[in-house]
Amino acid sequence: MRRISRITVAGAATASLALALSACGGTSTSSSSSESKGDRGLAIAYDVGGKGDQSFNDAAFAGLEQAKTEFGYATADIEPTEGETDADKTQRLVSLAKQGYNPVVGVGYAYAPAVKEAAAKYPGTTFGIVDDSTIDAKNVADLVFSEEQASYLAGVAAAKSTKTDVVGFVGGVDIPLIHKFEAGFEQGVKDTDPKVKVLSQYLTQTAEEGGFSSPDKGKTAAEGQIEKKADVVYAAAGLSGQGVIEAAAANKVWAIGVDSDQYKQEALAQYKDSILTSAMKDVAKAVYNLAKSVEGGTPGTGIVRGDLKTGEVGLSHSNPKFADNAELQEAIDTAKEKIISGEIKVKSS
Questions:
Q1: HEC states along the chain?
Q2: Could you tell me which CATH number the domain at 17-145+283-306 has?
């Protein structure tokens, strides 16, 4: 039976210096205030889209930055390369482990084969993978989330905010992970107002086709839904979601962001007034917590799940038009309580 671990958050500030790392398949940055001791800590390898996606990967980087500051050790973050293979990913993770980084985290389900192989080669290193729960190894933490729960609340928000009774969902890639977002969103919409129509579209069948890394594809999909009267569009599409938000702003309808609080993202500042809320999952906290567990000598392993009950998924409240809408907040709070209590069972497919 696998051990399921949860770790709490604590903090202490330290200074940092820059260090360069070279490894297969990309560039990296790292820093340390205690490099003289040879300390090397958290390393992350990004998913498709890389750092700067204002979403999933940037959230992982935020967790790395917190660990770097608090533990004062060298860190590394490495970009993906176009058309890379599982062997490329494995070599990247093995290179990091060989250099002494611990833990080493693959950001995204696509790292599953690589994490499994690298973990077997370096049993003394703790590995983590975000959004995958299939690796049964003593030195691997599966960092997973109940995205469907946050998406359900996004559906409540959409149903309460639409004036046309048409809302949209744009998924980056047609895979089970993104099906969770769609299923929760549609259920939240229909439970709130059955007459509201949900338009759904996936950008690509595979990540290699750019479903998570093509804002132009996201923009085109959103524009098509807006032409069909959708006035709230929810994107679960990584970097492609920026195009959805851009289209919403241009057409003066609402967008719902994903993973990070996209209202606060600097790169999206010109569109923020069109971002109603974001369905968030705290990838930063999960990544940081894994690093903290290793630093504390009791590495977290097994399935580590974040959900509404733990506070690791939910909706952002940065937009005042969302936060100050009492009727909307009451509906969301009621739904949240029912999900946590088990009265509402949210679908994941």
A1: CCCCCCCCCCCCCCCCEEECCCECCECEEEEECCHHHCCEEEEEECCCCCCCCCCHHHHHHHHHHHHHHHHCCEEEEECCCCCCCHHHHHHHHHHHHHCCCCCEEEECHHHHHHHHHHHHHCCCCCEEEECCCCCCCCCEEEEEECHHHHHHHHHHHHHHHCCCCEEEEEEEECCHHHHHHHHHHHHHHHHHCCCCEEEEEEEECCHHHCCCCCHHHHHHHHHHHHHCCCCEEEEECHHHHHHHHHHHHHCCCEEEEEECCHHHCHHHHHHHHHEEEEEEECHHHHHHHHHHHHHCCCCCCEEEEECCCCCCEEECCCCHHHHCCHHHHHHHHHHHHHHHHCCCCCCCC
A2: 3.40.50.2300
